[in-house]
Amino acid sequence: MEEIAFKRDETPYLVFTCKKCRQYSYVKTTQKTKKCLRCGRTHQVKNLLSLGEIIYGMTAAVEVVKQKQTELATPEFRSEGDFVVATTKTPTQTPAKKSKRKVLSDSERDSDNKKDFEEPFSEVLLELSKLYGKFPKYLLEIMADNYGIPALELKLLIKSFKKQGILTVLKNENYYYQLELKFLLDQRTKD
User: Fold this and answer.
1) pLDDT, tens digit, 9 for 90 and up, residues 122-168
2) 3-class DSSP state for residue 39?
3) Helices 106-132 and 181-190: crossing angle, nearest 10°?
4) What is the pTM assigned to this prediction?
5) Which of 13, 27, 61, 133 could lock 34 by a disulfide, CB 3.0 to 4.6 Å apart?
6) How many other CB atoms are found less than 10 A from the CB of residue 113?
């Protein structure tokens, strides 16, 4: 009676990267072509022999491909604990410490945001007044967007600057804006 035994696979495989998408793959060295599973590009095996790495055995080739692919992955995605299941609290766990950060009221938070965007908004107003003198709201919105001022903040800043008397609305000219002369002089003396 014949004994059944497993033979170790010693077939030579070529591990290579696709020239188009850089995906690692493996192929028997006796094959003529190999199609990339990711992008579909067909490679001539004889052209890849000098570019790849020869590995003996299919299992070893698969492991090498996996290893090389994980080396390419960004570090954030390589960790093994990516998917953590939340469980109930055990007695050994300590409660999370409360942050000692001061909780700001809505008005304090709004004033902080205004301070962050007041300087770029002033630059926008100065530039528009130098270029046009009087300018419509849509120009103000375009320039504020270029300076990185969000639309919501822009509305608050316009309201604040109108309240302070820096920005005036010329209602007889379809809501064109104009800067007050004293603001322009103050800004020029700062420069």
Assistant:
1) 888 888 877 777 777 888 888 888 888 888 888 888 888 888 878 77
2) coil
3) 90
4) 0.38
5) 27
6) 15
